[in-house]
Amino acid sequence: MNRAVRRVVWVGTMVLLGWSTARCGPPGTNSVPSTVDLKAKPAVGREKLVLPEPGKARLRPDRRVTYGGAVVKTVRSKNPLQMINPLAPARYGDGTENLAVDPVTGAARGVTLFSISFR
């Protein structure tokens, strides 16, 4: 690459970095509270820890465990390449079932790669 092309790539990268930094917005609400409630109840004392007996199973037999996420769906699929195909048929899903969503705003926060659910 010649010097002019490198300079254009460098300037473009810096502009993109500056733009993405400016789009981040104000910091979140993870700040220290300005007031402290002194009338709040103190924390409850430590509970006694109960360990399972060595000879017994750790999970109850009536408890159902289900595995989910994008990795599990890919492994179970007959055609795993359809997971990344934007023109895949509807039977492969719309892609939102493995999307992690912020419960307050409803905005997408990421993708659930692997999950375990107990019922």
List the helices and strands and how they pair.
Layout: H1 3-22, E1 65-68, H2 70-76, E2 99-101, E3 108-111, E4 115-118
Antiparallel strand pairs: 1-4, 2-3
Give structural notes:
This protein has 119 residues and is α+β, with helices and mostly antiparallel strands. The protein has a domain at 61-119. The chain is 23% helix and 13% strand. It contains two helices and four strands. It has a two-stranded antiparallel sheet. It has a two-stranded antiparallel sheet with strand order 2-3. A hairpin with a 6-residue loop joins β2 (99-101) and β3. It is flat and about 70 Å long. The protein starts with a helix and ends with a strand. 1% of the residues are buried. The model has no long low-confidence stretch (mean pLDDT 75).
Which key features would you list for this structure?
two-stranded antiparallel sheet, flat, 119 residues, alpha+beta
Strands, total number: 4
The largest sheet is:
2 strands, antiparallel
Order of helices and strands: HEHEEE
As an assembly, this protein is: single chain
Stretches with pLDDT under 50, minimum 5 residues: none
The pLDDT mean sits at 75
Number of helices: 2
Helix-strand category = alpha+beta
Distance between termini? 59 Å
Taking strands numbered 1, 2, ... along the chain, how are they ordered across the largest sheet? 1-4
State Rg.
Answer: 25 Å
Shape: flat
Q: What fraction of residues sit in β-strands?
A: 5-15%
